[in-house]
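Tokens for chain A. Residues wanted.
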């Protein structure tokens, strides 16, 4: 991305910014709470734009409970993610690590996910991450 690690990291910890760029294409999101400190976290409700798509939680919604396990500005953010779902295919805690490394033309942003629930296919996960990173880049370009 063409922005500095500091600027990108700030967008990772900004509730209003995250509402704009975090939901992947085909979804919108809202926070029920947000606390951007180590040990803090958030609860986000993601809603599919298509009301006929079944979500992981209820109806066409995915609800996530996230804890900030590690906040290391401006290079690393570790999130522990639990899906609010009765479906055992979405059980367990997924760990998402955001790594930001300065580069000549900006920053290389890498998202690593471990312990991904079995109900999330690799292809769907990659597509969601690509969409989210594209949204983040566009948000940073607009807010320039």
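Reply:
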């Amino acid at each position: 991305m063409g922005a500095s690690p500091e600027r990108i990291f700030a967008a990772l910890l900004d509730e209003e910014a995250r509402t704009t760029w975090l939901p992947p294409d085909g979804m919108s999101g809202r926070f029920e709470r947000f606390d951007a400190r180590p040990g803090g976290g958030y609860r986000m409700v993601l809603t599919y734009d298509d009301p006929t798509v079944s979500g992981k939680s209820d109806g066409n919604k995915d609800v996530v409970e996230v804890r900030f396990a590690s906040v290391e500005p401006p290079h690393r953010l570790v999130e522990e993610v639990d899906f609010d779902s009765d479906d055992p295919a979405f059980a367990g805690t997924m760990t998402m690590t955001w790594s930001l490394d300065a580069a000549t033309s900006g920053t290389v942003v890498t998202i690593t996910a471990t312990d991904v629930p079995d109900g999330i296919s690799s292809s769907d996960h990659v597509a969601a991450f690509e969409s989210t990173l594209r949204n983040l880049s566009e948000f940073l370009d607009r807010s320039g």
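The first helix runs from residue 5 to 12. Helices lie at 5-12, 15-21, 122-143.
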